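Appendix C reproduces, verbatim, an entry submitted by the partner laboratory led by Prof. M.T., so that reviewers can inspect both the input and the predicted structure.
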Amino acid sequence: MPHKGKRYSARKMLEATTEELHDLLSGQFTLVFDDGEMEVSAHSTIFSSYAWEFHRLYPATPMLKKHHCAYITEKSAFGNNTHTKLLHNVSWSVYDAYRDIVGGPSPNILAKKIYEISNHIYNDLILRTEEFVVSLDITDFLEIMEAEGVKETLENPAPTQEYIEKAYKDIQYALKSNPALEHNPLSRAVRAGLVREGQALQCLGPRGFMTDIDSHYFPTPIMRSFAQGLRNFYGALTESRSSSKSLVSNKLLVSKAEYFSRRLQILCQIVETVHTGDCGSKNYLRWRVRPKEVGTDGKLLRPNDLEILQGKYYLHEETNTLRVIHAEDTHLVGKILKIRSPVAGCNHPDPNGVCSVCFGEMHLNVPRDTNIGHLCAAFMTQQSNQNILSTKHYLDGAALADAIRLPPEYKDYLTVSSSGNAYLFKDTLKDKENYIIVLPHQVPGLVDINTTEELDGELSLTYVSDMTHIGIRSIDKEGEIKNELLNVAMDRRRASFTFPFLHHIKKVGWSFDDKGNYVISLQGWDYSRPAMRLPARQYNMSDHADAIANAIESSQERLREKDENQSPEDELIELSDLVNSKLNVNIALLEVILLGALVQSTVERNFFIPKATTKKQLTVASDTISNRSLSGMTAYNAMAQRLVSPSSLFHDHRPQLVMDVFLKPNETINDPYRYERYYRDY
């Protein structure tokens, strides 16, 4: 029987079934794999052996350390997704070992086996571990609240954002890292990922700053936890808004988001198929692999780009070969890569398809006969819609609205206040003659400041000014003029002039430039005071979904505002930054979504997706849907009007989609290419 100090071959373990290992193994021992050895326990080895069924079926698969759950739990606690990570590692090792062997297992076969093994694990463990099941009671919560570091913090509350963040950090340490609490049932549940961390924090720590249904913050936080009880009217009433937000989200916001999901699926269904093989395209998307971005408070704002680029092919220029990007390829950070992309242009002859090299290794996860455009659109919107549906479960009381993120190129002009929600003009500007330029429609109430005696008590800041951009003109001592356009909005929050700055404007007045814009001098302004402020409003998941919809579907007004030199590739980078600010979506999926939104030429009324040798442009989504397949058009809206419209009947460049068989069965089935592709096996 193995015990600590003994060494055993992992491959030798394959000779025994998992049931036999339950009776044979105990204690700690060293397990030798093909790529090294690990100190493991009997329990972790027994659990891992469920996944080793792959090795028994496919013996050419190497026996690697990552095929043991101890490898996974080195980086994270044993939890509800440990078995999926383990099966993921083993199954892809099988695929890599057999991918060049005729008759080797397909991803679909491996996926089926994963399902069978997962079911076996569940059925087996639910019987074997029944006697070890524990539950929670109030004493488990009290033990954490009385823990060292937590008790002292909770006994000295302060109604500030800084205190609430500190309280949550102390509780997080107790829940996830404090060795004295490793046997506490609540702590174990959080460490294993079985309980939402945010909900646990709300139960143990101060509820914090709450938001109303419009996402604006109430000025005073709730300083008690659910475990302590909300004992005053203010706490009970402001907390009640979280349920109201949930009701609004479920009734209005979810339906709105689901409608966008439907529109996007119709728009993207034109990208039907990923074909195995390489189209040979020489068109590349240039992408600088950005490092992770960390805020001034140490919080991770954005991981490095490798996470979303996993599976994409890039040109290794030294060898002139294509290589796959992996999350571990940290040597690529900071480099500009030439990436194969359908947005850059795929040469596959299928007008509604792309090759697997342009799409990337993610094609191995796509089931056979799946409409890839529909799949990508559904995957992205499913994440967003689920987050909206779970509004009440998210922790919004730990902090106020996100702090202003100032681009590096703005730091010669602006700084951010200590609170993180206000702009100050840089004091280095004092040596220059400076003017602020504002569009008239963004300061609709500015003229009212001259007729208002008490600005602070009578005027609403957002009524006076509601700005997305300002211009700043600086004239140095030599007379050199420098103009800069600054974006002062963030996450759908628009900037307003502060009351001190309104007093300044009232004192110095304003003039107009030749375009009718307001010009305000900074002469005499106190540069130590905030000049503009963002509202204390949370950027919620509904706002994020709306931003994605606006970016993809566009409008004629937005298209006119865009830089005419901006390429679809630039659109992809912007879309990726927007989507992945709240979600985690691989770039391959976003490429397909953007490809579905692109057309070859609106002037020529050619609404096919662009290829490597064609033009490409982004247009209004509703126009694109209307000018593509009849089935998509009728599924979109206004079916009766569109079916009788002459423009629907006389259209030379209307792409056919698979659903057209319901409206034009003969034309769709008799399309030679489509018949060959879809019906030859049936």
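Residues 156-244 form one domain. Additional entries are available on request from the coordinating office.
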